[in-house]
Amino acid sequence: MKKEFGFRKKLIAQLVFGSLLATGNAFAQDAVNLGTVQSNAGDGGVTGPGTASYVAPTQGSLVATQPQSIISQQYIQQNASATSNYTDIINIAPSVYSIDPNGPGMMESQSGGPYIRGFHDGQYNVTFDGIPWGDSNDFTHHTTSYFMAQDLGGITVDRGPGDASNIGYATFGGTIAVQSKNPMASTNFNLYGTVGSWNTRMMGGEFDTGVMQNYGDSAAFIDYRKVQTDGYLTNSNQNRGNLFVKFVKPVSDNTLLTFVTMQNTVHQNVPYGATLSTIAQYGKNYGLSANPLSQDYYGYNYDSINSDFEYIGLNTTQGNWKIDNKLYTYAYYHNGYNGMNVGINQPNGTIYGANNVPGGEMYMNYRSWGDILKTSYAVGKDSIDVGAWMDRQNNNRGAWNTDATLGNAFVSWNGGRLMTDSLTTIQPYAQYEWKATDALTVTPGVKYTSFTRTINAPINNGGNPAYNGSQTWGKALPSLDAHYMIQPNWSAYAQYAQGFLAPNLNVFSTANGTPLPSELNPETTQNFQLGTTWKSKQLTVSGDVYKIDFTNQAQGIACGAYTCYQNTGGVKYNGVEGEATYVIGGGFSLYGNYAINNYSMSTAGASLYDVPKNTATAGVIYNQGPAYASLIAKEIGSRYGFAQDANGNPIPFSSFTVTNFSSSYDFKGLGGWGKDVKVGFQINNIFNYNNIYDSAANDSTTNAPMYFVYPERNYELTLSIDM
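RESULT FIELD:
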């Protein structure tokens, strides 16, 4: 009999773990029961094996006040490739477009997202257990340097700004809310391994302590894995190690302490795409060369990265007060090396020799420290929510020219950088949840956001004049949500909110050393959304419409291998989204989602890159007893690519569809040293779609666009043993 871990009071569980259940943690098997929250929270009382809520790849919530797609731990465990990052997993959701050109989890995405409604990385939040994280220079995220699928308890893709309590750098574009899984209730050791295409192999093990009654009913797990792969693209290898630890302990009847740490190391060879002539000569999977006389040589193009993420969380209920506080830190230490110019057959020559290969070396090292305090005070049926987020990220950055032939001997600072910078973010908020009737809740609120950049750049980006100064941006952001329970299993909502984002760091890298006033204008939005969710045991369905008015849209464009940003002015977004799961019976279910994403720009003839006109998903799922199988197809609509053609014009791409198959069988109760054995088999890209899907950069000499090709059909076999 498995142990259960329960508090004597219900209040703390309802406070702390309601949000975990909303992200699908209710589907975890044999997880620690951290309280007495009903498992049907947000599901209309219709959940558990065999129901639509259980098998749904994505679904809305009956308690949500904005469009969201909940991806459960059940779906992740059964469908995600072993090497996946969160970006690979969320591709299933409506309005999401995300591709790893080297294979799932095998490269940071140079092109192909993830995009949400056409918003690129840096224009939406990514949180881990409620903590926003990312690079302060452009608010983007390094997906191969943090969390992996084995430690996730669920992901919620919020396609909107949320209420005033939703904190982060760029709330207007939505939030990818990643949640860690909980420790198991019983002592267990799980050994797992994966082999797959492109010489991919992974070995890992997780130890769960179970509930330790001699240590105050605390529980923990430790999980470590090692990944090695050659990747789909030639000479684009990855070697990665990832450690994750989570510890939970009830301090009293109504207080819970949580500690999490993650440590990650990665060495990866990163290509920038290939021109049409290179693809014709060397094949669709050309990434980097094996020729040490070329700037494309894999030995000259690689990253060595160390990163970590830690937090201490305290959740408590004291009378009418509910308090959630997280003190955290995370860091990213990156040493990168590359050939000086992008593209094959670039001319060589350095100060050390006419035939020596010119290269570049860089570092970017930063650490963030922060705290998130969220409080709620009950006033009858209503509540007052007050809190604040404070974060400080310090960054050291350098880049210079080298001689790759001589082991990266220093050449010059020309076009490089040497700088320190910091970003201080403060976001206090307050809102009132007014229970107007038993069915209607109205929540007005306001959040104030403040960003302060300080920069000391004796050598500015790109060799621009030195800069030493600071700039602060701030704005009050009102929001108003209305949520109505039409029936116990049917809800509707309406939302209005304003959004705000400070300019990227590179606006301070200008030819005269002084940022242009127009480039210092922050991005602002007004978001309007309406939606509904309906659930029964057999069917879960959600739909929404949205409209976003955008001012000072900062769009990235390819500058060779790098990204530059320009102010494209006003943009208006609008669209329709929907998702549904239907249980046929006999273990079979049908799933589908569809989204239409439109935009118009104030600049005549202008266009945005990677905004698919539509996304669509359709699939069939079998889930009966120990057997699981899914066949799911995802369509990405027509769009423009990231880079331009040789004349500076946007490159159109047609729609495409990719189909994946996933299966597993769980052999339970075997006895002996293996209690349970699970075998999984996956085929990604069954019909072998292997065409160019996006432009990634421009060749340094010819200015010809460089492309990525969708990875060919690939396989994965996984074995997991509980001991």
